[in-house]
Design goal:
By secondary structure, this protein is an alpha/beta fold. The protein is built from 7 helices and 9 strands. The strands form 2 sheets. A 7-stranded mixed β-sheet has the order 5-4-3-6-7-8-9. A two-stranded antiparallel ribbon has the order 1-2. Helix 5 links the parallel strand 3 (92-96) and strand 4 (113-118). It is globular and about 50 Å long.
């Protein structure tokens, strides 16, 4: 497919994301996402973050398999989770679950630095190649167990988790900066909820449930 066709498909995907936001507006408390987020979704080439044989499906508003039993998240969910973080230009962001790097690229367009942890080495290696090829110098990826965060670069202004834990990992709360925000799916496999965690300047932690979701599990016991 040509660059022009991919661009046209990407804009159609953006229109679907905007429409779905309106559809769930009562649940998420707003009828429109931040314009900056929408613009980034319309800019980042999602087809560069899926296996070559699936590139023609890259701009469907749906998750797609990326190997190792993992998926690239639905574009609406990527946009929503990014919007919920309220990223500022000088923020340092931790991502747990790199996949092939699409969410990291979206974050990198909005934040100063992105640190991303991926448990599966093959995916992490591919993600490094993909973000490097597209010129992202502010994305840092390592292979490891994201349940434990990335302590060397903490605290983080924002944290996004793309796999579901039964309970919100204490180490991620610890690595969240005061005044920071985390978006994470949590709960048993059949009743996961997307949750926004906020830490006040005094260190008090509060949570808010946004809507039901379905993610693969975040494994706290896997070794790095």
């Amino acid at each position: 497919m040509s660059t022009e066709i991919f661009g046209s498909l990407r804009q159609h995907m953006v229109a679907e994301v905007v429409a779905e936001t309106i559809y769930v507006s009562a649940r998420i408390g707003k009828a429109a996402l931040d314009r900056r987020v929408v613009d980034v979704i319309g800019k980042v080439p999602r087809h560069q973050f899926v296996p070559a044989e699936l590139q023609s499906y890259a701009y469907l508003n749906r998750p797609l398999p990326i190997g190792h039993g993992k998926t690239i998240s639905q574009p609406f969910i990527v946009a929503l989770m990014t919007d919920l973080l309220t990223i500022r230009p000088h923020d340092v962001v931790l991502e747990v679950g790199t996949g092939l790097g699409y969410q990291a690229a979206v974050l990198a367009e909005l934040a100063e630095e992105v640190y991303s942890v991926e448990m599966i080495k093959n995916l992490a290696d591919q993600a490094k190649q993909r973000v490097s090829r597209l010129g992202y110098s502010n994305i840092h990826i390592k292979t490891g167990n994201g349940y434990h965060g990335w302590l060397e670069h903490a605290p983080f202004d924002k944290i996004i988790v793309t796999a579901a834990a039964d309970l919100i990992p204490p180490l991620l709360i610890l690595q969240l900066a005061r005044g920071g925000k985390m978006v994470i799916p949590a709960g048993p496999p059949n009743s996961q909820q997307l949750i926004v965690v906020e830490k006040s300047q005094s260190g008090t932690v509060s949570t808010k449930t946004v809507l039901p979701v379905r993610f693969s599990s975040l494994d706290e016991t896997a070794t790095e």
